[in-house]
């Protein structure tokens, strides 16, 4: 008997190590709820008299020190006081995290042992410890309020009776344990999607269930589907949604036409990328007797087909955006709508939602009208074709530019006149925007020539020319004027705005330091000098080795644009009111804008702000996920492209310097890779943060941000989407 008791006590005493922390942890996790010694003993998994005595004593001591409160005889709790906060967990790649709390300037550091099973992006409640001889406040996660996601992508390592899934995301600090009966069809080495199931108290890893086998790591389709799965983005439409879409009446009826403004007889055309399949927007052009121009911005009337409270609408809302990966588009709407009924294809009548403006010769808006229309597109042009008209002022589109099957063709005189006049007006509007403080981001986009197997056979850069800017300018006009029309109404009406806050001052200051390394400068005196010097900088770097780096860093100084019901204006465009009205085929906020605009045109009362706030927040979140997926797919394709060029020497520019490596962006294809400091064997290099450089201890040799260097591919990892380079040397040394 005595032996048994002694053994039990030993076992219990192990559980009662660091007892004061264990008790305060229990009370903190249920702050505001009172516990007695028996309940705490049960939580700790002990029930012998000795352990209960220790707990009773410890409770009395903690209450005496005012670390906990005795609220009733034998009942103790921790008040939910000022030390409890909520925020979003941002994991580092080193296993600890930071919680971003609105009330604090500094983020709260969460050591790994205090994460309490929270993952990157989760909304959490934290307890913040008092400041103690530390610069950063530390905290502990006491509750997971809302999981950011529950599914993760990783590679299965199969053992005899169970498996572990090693997660791809570098911000995930743990693998997942999967029991034999939860493995599904997955085989050892497969890339899989694992669903979080539970994280038992004493388990080292969370338990997961494999819900989908994605394929063999490194294979093209596996990796593209992995990118979608990683962000919880769907690859296909559910069958019932496709069926629902296929049953929608897509016919253009006389009854419906009577309810709309008929603009089928006005010259109308579209200008889009040559590979576009969904045409959201068309422009119409008509000269008025008073010498002014009637310009129509006609947008696909998606909300006519997409009715609220249907499974199709729910699916579109959940997706909130189309996702543009390097080799495919994952559309927001099924193809029958996105590429069919809603697409403003040439020589077809379509239902549209329009903003029609009367513009004088100086591009000033003299009159405006918003409403539902029916239109007929007379012609479709690729940007290259419209650009040719602008540059040559001629009717003939040559064969090498033409997107028509017949090759070279003649354009109607009226369309040539319309394109040239709209180009002239767009340039006037753009110069006014720039004068008012808009920022001109003409960032170079990296694109790939893909063969039939989706292998990248070449890289090219997409730049914005006059034809692109013509379309952009009139889309901006429609978005701005729709937002003004609703935003200025009294009493205030709930609406969806595209908001963009002022840039972060600290980021602007660090941008100033970086661009100084390249001989550029910024004037940060006031708003006007910031925008004009930013525009000068972006113009100065065009075509230079540092262009992509400076463009990227300048964009990062900007706040993120988002959707909201509270209008704060759009800093980057220098507009007091702005919305998204022009792309409802690929963005759900535009659908909401169409619905609200029609509602208010019909004289209805204001919609619920709370409902639209939530929808705006969801749309912004999904936009960010889609942008991350798009970025990852470009990175994947760059790594794939570089795999075939492992023996070549490339000239690059140092685009980043850290205490573990140097980032280099290759000038001819914008692929970025890293040289690890430990691989620089000619010296021991140390990071100098102040100079954005690494410096050799013995030789004083320096590699600095902006330096041109020659590199070679050392390793191209498709699964991690990561490039490692070997440093060959500075350009000046190499070319001597």
Topology:
Blueprint: H1 2-15, H2 19-29, H3 37-44, H4 49-64, E1 69-72, E2 75-77, E3 84-91, E4 97-100, E5 108-110, E6 123-128, E7 139-146, E8 151-158, E9 162-167, E10 176-179, E11 191-198, E12 207-215, H5 220-230, H6 239-246, H7 254-258, E13 261-262, E14 268-272, E15 281-287, E16 293-300, H8 302-305, H9 311-319, E17 323-325, E18 328-330, H10 335-341, E19 349-359, E20 365-376, E21 379-382, H11 383-392, E22 396-397, E23 409-410, H12 413-435, E24 445-450, E25 456-462, H13 466-487, E26 497-499, H14 505-516, H15 527-540, H16 547-557, E27 562-564, H17 588-601, H18 609-643, E28 649-657, E29 661-666, E30 672-676, E31 685-688, E32 693-696, E33 702-704, E34 708-717, E35 722-730, H19 731-734
Parallel strand pairs: 13-20, 14-21
Antiparallel strand pairs: 1-2, 3-4, 3-6, 4-5, 6-7, 8-9, 8-11, 9-10, 11-12, 14-15, 15-16, 16-19, 17-18, 19-20, 22-23, 24-25, 26-27, 28-29, 28-34, 29-30, 31-32, 32-33, 34-35
Enzyme class: hydrolase
Keywords: Cytoplasm, Exonuclease, Hydrolase, Nuclease, RNA-binding
Subcellular location: Cytoplasm
